[in-house]
């Protein structure tokens, strides 16, 4: 939590935002609710359709936090920050460029990133903002798009970097980013988060490696939801990983990567081994 | 059904194979079962874990057939037939080259393929064999792979062809193949189908456009399941669309595309409009 100036659930002005969390108790029960201080106010029903408070609370420290949503797909963007595009000498795209990370990539807060048995090469972290879809979106306008967003979360879009260009005829984006545990996500979904003044920070073993303003996005979250909803129906719980900016780097076995945004908290995952 | 020499559920030698189907009744009830002649022997439970015959039968003509499975992902191959690779001047890959079509692409037998509202360009059919996974597969050997296959089905891997190369920096395979209704699948899952002597036929408005032997695959189904299970966990019901060969072509509004393989039947879908 030291990466950011304000704690999860707070804006810089001190105002609160809602933070959804999903958790597993020591007895293996899975639940969800709103984080309030060190307590979770449990809810029941459908997170995406008027969930109801049960009245029960449970201490955050007594449970393991899980991915706060269970996406059917993670739509992962490439070349969506001006600064990284400029560094790589790539023109800004005229439509979002993306691949799909399957649900089997999902990896919750504090869960271990596993090296694929079949791959000995470089594995890199990519700290990103994640958009969590709140209701089915198909061909929605940019103006309407914000109503289809439940909230925002943090993503580490882990990538087996040496696979991408391994075959000269076909860039293997899906394979490089599709391995089990390569979609780190969480710890919360923040409703009413304002991305326009926030910055994302990624640390590797405590050393800052990425710090960039979300306002540098080429397609902003509302544009992304609108444009991508032309390409496919986005379902409740689906996640758009909006792309990363400069500073991505290699993770060695045992390395700890922490992705943070003011108010969204910190997503921490360690490389296994 | 005129495309092929033997009806669904039969080998050329007359022997039967099991054909699974999923259906919706006129009352909206969804069920599944084994096709036997013009009847469906209903089953209950989990298709992937010892489903049980209910004893009830229902006439095939009385129901609408649905996609026979509900994949969490469709893994779609590129450059997996020697003949097409030779025609395009592409070397055989050393590992399967793939993208993911999201579950929102799914389109059942006889369902309409819809042109995306945002796209006025060429839309092409690609007749393909589909592998349906029967149990969770992670890092399985080629020898063990066949035990992870429930059966085989037919796929029309519909593609908005002009999108692929629209951005010079990033081939948009996922976007071009990821639109809703672009994953036509069915009508059955055939257990114990032997792909080694079969050929796939695609007709456009009754005219043959593709006819190629499945034995021309670069990575065969067992190799595909083994190799792809190194890249991600394949889940029960997931589908591998093994790639197409020569003869793909454009579908105009109103066109009827039928994909057939001896014993697997015919997957028919019409372009809307």
UniProtKB/TrEMBL annotation, chains A, B:
Protein name as it appears in the record: 2-hydroxyhepta-2,4-diene-1,7-dioate isomerase
Sorted UniProt keywords: Isomerase, Metal-binding
Keyword Membrane: no
InterPro entries reported for this sequence: Fumarylacetoacetase-like_C, Fumarylacetoacetase_C_sf, Rv2993c-like_N
Start and end residues of each Fumarylacetoacetase-like C-terminal domain: 73-270
Domain Rv2993c-like N-terminal: 20-68
GO molecular function: acetylpyruvate hydrolase activity; isomerase activity; metal ion binding
NAD keyword on record: no
């Amino acid at each position: 939590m030291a990466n950011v100036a304000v704690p999860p659930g707070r804006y810089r002005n001190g105002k609160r935002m809602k933070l959804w969390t999903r958790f597993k108790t020591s007895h293996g029960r899975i639940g969800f609710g709103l984080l309030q201080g060190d307590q979770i106010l449990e809810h029941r029903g459908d997170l995406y359709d008027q969930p109801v408070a049960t009245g029960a609370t449970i201490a955050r420290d007594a449970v393991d936090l899980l991915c706060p949503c269970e996406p059917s797909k993670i739509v992962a963007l490439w070349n969506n920050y001006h600064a990284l595009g400029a560094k790589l000498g790539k023109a800004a795209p005229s439509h979002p460029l993306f691949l799909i990370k399957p649900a089997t990539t999902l990896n919750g807060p504090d869960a271990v990133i596993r090296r694929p048995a079949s791959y000995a090469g470089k594995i890199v972290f990519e700290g990103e903002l994640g958009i969590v879809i709140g209701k089915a979106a198909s061909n929605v306008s940019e103006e309407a798009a914000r109503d289809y967003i439940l909230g925002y979360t943090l993503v580490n879009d882990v990538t087996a970097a040496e696979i991408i260009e391994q075959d000269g005829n076909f860039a293997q984006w899906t394979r490089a980013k599709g391995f089990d545990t390569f979609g780190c996500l969480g710890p919360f979904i923040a409703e009413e988060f304002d991305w326009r003044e926030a910055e994302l920070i990624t640390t590797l073993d405590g050393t800052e490696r990425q710090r960039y303003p979300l306002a540098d996005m080429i397609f902003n979250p509302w544009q992304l939801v609108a444009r991508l909803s032309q390409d496919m129906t986005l379902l409740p719980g689906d996640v758009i990983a909006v792309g990363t900016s400069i500073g991505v780097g290699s993770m060695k076995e045992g390395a700890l990567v922490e992705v943070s945004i003011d108010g969204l908290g910190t997503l921490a995952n360690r490389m296994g081994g």
